[in-house]
Amino acid sequence: MQTIRQLDLLRQGVADLRGDGSRIALVPTMGALHAGHLALIEAAKRPGTRVVASIFVNPKQFGANEDLSRYPRKELADTRMLTEAGCDLLWMPPVEAMYPAGFATNVSVAGISEGLDGAARPGHFDGVATVVTKLFNQVRPDVAYFGEKDFQQLAVIRRMVADLDTGIEIIGVPTQREDDGLALSSRNIYLDEAERVKAVAMPRALGVAARAIHKGDAPESALAAARDTLIAAGFTIDYVELVDAETLGAPDPARPRRLVAAARLGTTRLIDNLAVDPNG
Ligand code: PAF
């Protein structure tokens, strides 16, 4: 696997990969890779496709009081994992290459970016949309893979790509979980031992609520029970909601619905989501 940090070399590297007529798949990441990221690489490794991963801890998607400075950086381990996973090229631009002096553009996807995490983390999805647009323009992939764990991020990117006629296929990959159900996340390492034990309340509460809503219980009572479970486990809740799986707006039982949640254990913010309906 080639590791590239300069845009002109990236363009050449991607052109070389395309040389045999291959399609290019992009897996954008912020590093600190885990099995969830490897599932994206695995999904991207299709016949006739070469896989480019990017690692860039994007300052624009962190709020002033968020964890940019302590966000885990594991360049060596990440490079080894990507090589072993069969990734063809790693794009790892320095911050100055991504946002040179004078950088002034902001990509903002209205509506779908505004509720849920967008409300709890103002500016976050502008940062995501801006950097993903840059990554798309730099790598020019045919297809890009994102985890369903960041469900709103995936919906925002799908909206952006449709609105801007980007012509890149966006594929969502199901959330990877620990044996007890906790969704894999680079931020799980912030949990201390006691918090890690409590964290399992998140997938459990969502699972109970999703099954209750699916079998016809009133969503409001299922959501209230999920909130109570999380509070009893020691979480501070940002949101626990039932939304339309595509628009993230008001749910309609005739369309796929998603249960989405974000809550904090101590200083660690966990997010998770579950489909309520088959094929949801
Ligand atoms: O999901 C992530 O790791 C990031 O939000 C992404 C998509 C790489 C953009 O920085």
Automatic annotation (TrEMBL):
Pathway(s): Cofactor biosynthesis; (R)-pantothenate biosynthesis; (R)-pantothenate from (R)-pantoate and beta-alanine: step 1/1
Keywords (A to Z) from UniProt: ATP-binding, Cytoplasm, Ligase, Nucleotide-binding, Pantothenate biosynthesis
GO terms assigned for molecular function: pantoate-beta-alanine ligase activity
Annotated Pfam families: Pantoate_ligase (PF02569)
Residues that, per the record, bind beta-alanine: Q61
Catalyzed chemical reaction(s): (R)-pantoate + beta-alanine + ATP = (R)-pantothenate + AMP + diphosphate + H(+)
Class of enzymatic activity (EC top level): ligase
Keyword Cell membrane: no
Active site: H37
Cellular compartment(s): Cytoplasm
InterPro entries for the chain: Pantoate_ligase, Pantoate_ligase_C, Rossmann-like_a/b/a_fold
EC id: 6.3.2.1
Subunit and interaction comment: Homodimer.
PANTHER family (UniProt xref): CYTIDYLATE KINASE/PANTOATE-BETA-ALANINE LIGASE, PANTOATE--BETA-ALANINE LIGASE
NCBIfam families: panC (TIGR00018)
Function: Catalyzes the condensation of pantoate with beta-alanine in an ATP-dependent reaction via a pantoyl-adenylate intermediate.
UniProt protein name: Pantothenate synthetase
Gene source species: Sphingomonas qilianensis
